[in-house]
Amino acid sequence: MRFDVQVETRPRAGIADPEGSTIERSLPALGFEGIHDVRVGKSFRFHVDAADEAAAKALVDDVCARFLTNPVIEDSTITVTEGSTV
Amino acid sequence: MAARIGVVLFPGSNCEHDAVEAVRTLGGDAEVLWHGDDDLKGVDGVIVPGGFAHGDYLRPGAIARFSPVMQSVQAFAADGGPVVGICNGFQVLTEAGMLPGALQKNAGLKFLCRMATLRVETTDSVLTAAVEQGAELRVPVNHFEGNYTCDAETLAMLQAEDRVVVRYVENVNGSIDDIAGVCNEGRNVVGLMPHPERACDDLLGSSDGAPLLRSLLESASRARV
User: Fold this and answer.
1) Using a CB-CB distance cutoff of 8 angstroms, which residues of chain A are in contact with residue B95?
2) Which residues of B are marked as active site?
3) Cα separation of B162 and B141, whole Å?
4) pLDDT tens digits for B208-222?
5) Interface confidence (ipTM) of the complex
6) Is A85 a residue whose pLDDT tops 60?
7) 3-state class (DSSP) for residue B187
8) Hey, which of A5, A23, B43, B161 has its CA 20 to 30 A from B224?
9) What is the pLDDT of residues B38-66, one digit of tens each?
10) Domains of chain B, first to last
11) pTM assigned to the model
12) Do A15 and B149 touch (CB under 8 A)?
């Protein structure tokens, strides 16, 4: 079976995010008010072939922990959906 | 016999020749180690140099740590062999789990290419054994992702175990606790963002990096005996 996978990463709570804070500081100068707590992450999209959803999820968990994120500074959210939509 | 230092070459490394030149200037032998080989060729110490290994894709060091040579470097370090990661090499060592913490984008998102002043915080490491505690050294930095970070627990451990090797006198990149370099528990693996290999001759604006690399050469000689 083929699964659509989306992995979103972001800096862990308590870890400074220089990119997010630089964007946040520039917002008022551009006339945008009321925007706070900007955090910048990454998004990965890919397909996985696996026997079932649990197997696909286990594979993505592993690749995420060992490669796609640095667990020292990043958290991730994984979404696995059956069928290829891309 | 002079200590032999292996300098790891990844696709995208760009400071390997500087490191080789600096080691030879200081009286050591240097050999370039290709990342695809797992043979360290019997060297007495290893430098993981600066650059953009594998284009820094995904995260700096994230792909380089899977190179065959890194398995051997990890085994060499586990046996007590001296290993120093400079700039991108520091990023590789943190990604490989050989050093704690991580390197983020600089505060203010500025690429830095300038001289920095470092304070030697401990002489109990392979990079600082021959330097005086508290010495202030002028060594250049050249990086975008040199902003050292770690969780509060790790920081407390580094401080309690005297594992912050060098600090910036003036914090150039937003690093937590002004940290410019740290060592592992065994004190034989050191990573730092500044480039001592680029400060080994007065013609380059500073020779303050020389005593650091001399410490590495001495540690490497001792490791062989």
Assistant:
1) 70
2) 87, 195, 197
3) 23
4) 999 999 999 999 999
5) 0.85
6) no
7) coil
8) B161
9) 999 999 999 999 999 999 999 999 999 99
10) 4-224 (3.40.50.880)
11) 0.94
12) yes
Q: Where are the domains of chain A?
A: 2-82
Residue B71 has which token pair?
Answer: 């398995």
Topology adopted by domain A2-82? Mth169; Chain: A , (3.30.1280)
Instruction: Round to whole Å and give the CA distance between B161 and B182.
Output: 11
* Nearest chain A residue (CA) to B151: A15
In this structure, are strands B45-48 and B83-86 parallel, antiparallel, or unpaired? parallel
Query: Which residue carries 């940290």 as its tokens?
Result: B179
In the predicted model, is pLDDT for residue B90 greater than 70? Answer: yes
Closest CA to B187 of B221, B164, B157, B212: B164
For chains A and B, what is the number of CB pairs under 8 angstroms? 41
pLDDT per position as a tens digit, B114-150: 999 999 999 999 999 999 999 999 999 999 999 999 9
Contact residues, chain B, for A9 at CB < 8 Å: none
Can you tell me the mean pLDDT for B167-174?
97
CA distance A60 to chain B (A): 16
Residue B152: its chain A contacts at CB < 8 A? 14
